[in-house]
Amino acid sequence: MAPLLDNPNNAIIPDFRTAEHEAARMRLIANGVADDIQAAEVLAALWTMNNNAATEVWAEQTEATARAADLARHQAAEEEEDRQRTLEEEQEAARKEEQKKNKSKFMPVSAEKLKAGDYCELHYFTNKGLHEVKTSLTSTEPDGMLLMPAVDGQQIWVNAGAIRDPKSVVTKDENLSWEEFNEAAPRMITAMKQHEWPEDRVNMHVQFWTALQSHRWRHAFDGMKQRALLLYQSQQRRLWHLTAGGPHGWSIAELNHKLILEAREEIFNQQRAQAIVALNKVRTSPWKTIPNNTHRKNFLSLPIITTRTAR
Which residues pair with 159 in a beta bridge? Predict the structure, then answer.
């Protein structure tokens, strides 16, 4: 049976008493219907019966159409889920492959240390450290000319040996500037993840470095306080690596203010010792004579910090 195109529920029964339906009425009269009025009533009854049957067919047809639409939507949703799952798997595979490639962006020394879970200086992840990586890569090229970017953005040919720095020195964490620290910390976090460090250890370093950034000494006018935070950071990371994985391991995520104060005292004592050495050099210099009371005045001007009991 062909599907219905119009909804029979919206159909209006015709007026079978009109001249339009006269021929139909006459056929009924010829077959025994009493008169014209009765013939119109018979036609109306037949139309109503046929319309009721069409209404039932329409209902079944509508239900079947709805079921087919639901099935199509369900299949489309499953296909979309499969497509998204496949896409995510491909993206994850690409991300892992990219991580493997990115490992080569860091110096072999830092990569080896991170892979082994050993202490690694932040220097390797500063702009300066990464520049040294780029420069060191050129050492594998034979001596000759290399195409390098110039200051004005153009590219020029330079001698390969001229851009190598055999005297590159690793800066200790405590001697970094805060700008260099800010460059290195996020990059080291990324490198830790690339070398598949345990998530809790990565999160611990994130919390540790975030706490240092939020410490009230971070933006203090006293530069000694800012340096104390960097020294504390270096000390705690080194100690943590010495005990990590052992029975005496601990988390560095929470700052120890007492140890931060001790770090500041250590820096003060270093500066005081350096100042005394400098004064003694000036005092014994054959080229310049300074009155003794000047030495005494400069020495007494140094700030004094009460020594705290070591932990």
Answer: 145
